[in-house]
Amino acid sequence: MTELWERYTEFKRPSLSPNTLAREFATARRCINLYIPSTSVDDAIAIRDWIIANKPADAAKRFLTQLSACCTWAKKSDMLPDDPFEGMALEIKIPKNVTHNEEREIDPFTAEERDSILQAFENNRYTATTCHSSRFCLEQAVDRVKRLPFNGNTSVAISA
């Protein structure tokens, strides 16, 4: 698998961005060379099982897709009789709450945080004159926060 991956990488190099080479292909190479239980394509099932057990679902699916692409290329290049990883990535179902592009419902404040914000509005001499009520101001703030783009890595900090 190690030599096959290197040859596949060299074949793909002209069509890949430096970023893809550095991140995706180098990560796959490191995993092939250091972590998977076997470097023989004959052990595809053991390799698949290790990947699924040791990688998050989305990373496992990507890695198996890459291995399959490599073996499909090797088959077309008469280096392998078949692709032992064919279809394995399709068997991995990614939970909806893990996908990165999914819109997520944001519940920005706990009840305790909400009460703290309301108290801050009521005690602040500047907002007391510009807001009709603390509840109205909080509802406006929550509405603005819910419209923010959210990627799962963003946190909202509130200071009183």
Fold and architecture overview:
The protein has 160 residues and is mostly helical. Helices cover 57% and strands 0% of the residues. It contains 7 helices and no strands. Helix 1 packs antiparallel against helix 2, helix 1 crosses helix 4 and helix 5 crosses helix 7. The chain is elongated, with a radius of gyration of 25 Å. The termini are far apart. The C terminus is likely disordered.
Largest sheet: none
Strand content: under 5%
Indicate the structural class.
mainly alpha
* Anisotropy-based shape: elongated
The total strand number stands at: 0
Average residue pLDDT: 76
Which H/E pattern describes the elements?
Answer: HHHHHHH
- Number of H/I helices: 7
Residues in helix, %: 55-70%
Spans of at least 5 consecutive residues with low confidence: 152-160
Element layout with pairings:
Layout: H1 2-12, H2 18-34, H3 44-54, H4 57-76, H5 111-123, H6 125-130, H7 134-146
Give the gist of this structure.
With 160 residues, the chain is mainly α. Helices cover 57% and strands 0% of the residues.
Descriptive labels:
160 residues, 7 helices, disordered C terminus, single chain, mainly alpha
